[in-house]
């Protein structure tokens, strides 16, 4: 396992972890000092990261990196997760106020995977941060207020953080590519909620700014210079809001042509070494963009179908086709085998669960002697969810009330006033709600609540 580090003095080195010692690039051996702790602690951290669901992976990474670099908050920005592109753990004052725009801006300043130490705008003000990028997915890791100070931070500490971050970023990539039903459900709910909230904010502030523009353009106002200045400021604000809306759309959607190209890249090794002719019929380039979870699911489903068909005897050709009718992504995969594919097999059952997670359908025709033909339809729009079915979470009546207020966008103080309880009691109930929902933040709880129709 190799990782590259950069100290506060910008000196590069690499190291290989072997058992209870570290070997640097020059061959020198570094004993496992008390700074690193026992090998078992590191292995426990690696195991926790490997098993962590995406909803809690930021917390697990913060636990793993704390012995090497303590921080006030840990933030992850990854466009692999379209529903929740930033994952966070630590100080609520930081993680609740950090915006995607801030993380996106910081990421753009990093040229490579080398650790970067400096000041960046995070949670609305300049903060000292340690930032690292994971090049394969362009994911970003940010540790705020890292301790020790940059000039005292050991190369080994940076190296261990870089190593653990690489494991985490790969874990996120693999989890998203696998597209399990639980991820697809959570991602769809979060995507819909992010788009809804952003659209509401854009509409709200656009109305305000347009009203200001109308006022300052009025000929009844005397100060021409003031009107000009305010006009420029509000016009720029409008552009900024529209840019935010477009950026949100970019994060949660993927052009259908690009999604299909990624599928072809995924399957290229199979087409090269299997000896089977895998044919691709491309979708219309001007087709509707796909929600991220639909694109992830479609690629995972096609990969699974192609692998299942390749396991049959005497298959020489597999044809996969995507199309879009404006409301659904239509996927068709067929082979020229003897018709031995079984819908009851474990692999096919798993693919069917992925389809059902997005309220899609899968039809399978198997004709002995002629092969198998599988047609999948995935709705592009999330279903209308009503009824507030949250019984599976086993929340108390008071916890349900608190969750309802959270879902309405209220903060602790207003919830306390509405329910006639103290803010500390609200915090107690919020912690219980997060635990029962198995999520790591208020925003995740709100997204899940909305996915069950709770408003």
TrEMBL record:
GO terms for biological process: regulation of DNA-templated transcription. Residues 388-453 form the HTH luxR-type domain. GO terms for molecular function: DNA binding. Keywords: DNA-binding, Transcription, Transcription regulation. PROSITE patterns: HTH_LUXR_1 (PS00622), HTH_LUXR_2 (PS50043). This is Response regulator transcription factor. It comes from Arthrobacter wenxiniae. It comes from the Bacteria.
